[in-house]
Amino acid sequence: MGNTSRELMNRSCKVIPGGVNSPVRAFGSVGRAPLFIDRASGSKIYDAEGREYIDYVASWGPMILGHAYPAVTEAIYEAACRGTSYGATTEREIIMAEMIVNAFPSIDMVRMVNSGTEATMSAIRLARAYTGRERIIKFEGCYHGHADPLLVRSGSGIATLGIPGSPGVPKVLAELTITVPYNDVEALKKVVNDYGSEIACLIVEPVAGNMGIVLPVPHFLDTIREITREKGIILIFDEVITGFRLAYGGMQTIAGIEPDLTCLGKIIGGGLPVGVFGGKRQIMEMLAPTGPVYQAGTLSGNPLAMAAGVATLKILRSWSNLYHSLDVKTNHLCNELKSLLEKKGLPFKINRAGSLFTIFFTSAEVKDFRSAQKADTGLFSKFFRGILSEGIYSAPSQFESSFLSAAHSDDDIERTIDAVSIALKNL
Ligand code: HOZ
């Protein structure tokens, strides 16, 4: 303790590749050393030097209630006192499963895992087994974790680093992944026409959150549902970011669409490592031990993660105007940012869905990965550094989202607007 972020980074680089355990955290695309975090509380996060920031990363989504929310912290403490892991089944896992099943009409059964990556990877294996097919479809710029078949034209860190995929992914696996531009129904129809009977599943973020926020155009999601149903393709909604974030039942509840399988993570762990995939009973029952599809995990359904997740979901379920107030607050912030950026005369577009938003530095609409990539990342990086030095911690990449939480007060929002205004003057 007592070291600066820079000293910690130098030390870290000697024992951890790039000094970080997840690439975007290295601040590689924003031209400065990363923050090392010491603690967080409510809407604030504090670095190793003790500097306070208003936090719009929110651990990339899970902290919808704010950091160290007392009821969640107490649930974790109480669970930890009873033992941190048993590698055996507990009642809390059933409670968690029941809460998810009740929140999502499309889900009859779930299997808990430890991350979003595990959830998508397992859902794809299941879809392949169920259909007896091998090809999968994903959309350019969507990120579904780092399993081999999903690292093709991905968003998030892959987009931040500006690389097309990753060495180490066998060519034969990558070739089974077909990518289509997000929001491009005609391209999708063509692919389905050409390969329909070979395609096991289509995986999509119903609101894309990993190329920055990109909203589905009207009827995009319905069309995907129609096409996949027609061709016997399993539709997987990756709601790792949007699940319990845009509404209690995720984006699928807002859109009124039932996918065959859904992947969740982040919020359902209340800040602890967790993921889940679930869906229709006849598909889920193919999992071992009921069926032959193997999937397992020593820490799956871990008691601490279940305790934090159940506590978080109970609060979300009973907080009647939470999603509405998050929406109003985020809308207000985005409108104010818009007028500041307009006044400054910068090219920009703000994409927003509920409490998620991204400022893209481009004058063209951002509706897919290609248009997102047209954003001026140099300008983004200057803007990022400017607001950071005014006490605003946001995602250190153009291709990520900002997240608001219930803990962001009106005062936080006003302070953020002032900070952006000063940063823009200095730009
Ligand atoms: N891939 C994450 C954002 N979409 C970043 C995770 C992290 O660096 O913690």
Model description:
The strands form 3 sheets. Strands 4-10-9-8-7-5-6 form a 7-stranded mixed beta sheet, with helices on both faces. The protein has a 4-stranded mixed beta sheet with strand order 1-2-3-13. 39% of the residues lie in helices and 15% in strands. The longest helix is centred in the last third of the chain and has 23 residues, at 322-344. The protein starts with a helix and ends with a helix. α2 runs antiparallel to α11 (303-318) and α12 (322-344) runs parallel beside α15 (410-426). It folds into 2 domains: 5-68 and 320-425, Aspartate Aminotransferase, domain 1, CATH 3.90.1150.10; 70-318, Type I PLP-dependent aspartate aminotransferase-like (Major domain) (Aspartate Aminotransferase, domain 2, 3-Layer(aba) Sandwich). With 427 residues, the chain is α/β, with parallel strands linked by helices. The protein has 15 helices and 14 strands. It binds (4S)-4,5-diaminopentanoic acid (HOZ). (4S)-4,5-diaminopentanoic acid is lined by residues 22, 24-25, 60, 156-157, 210, 400.
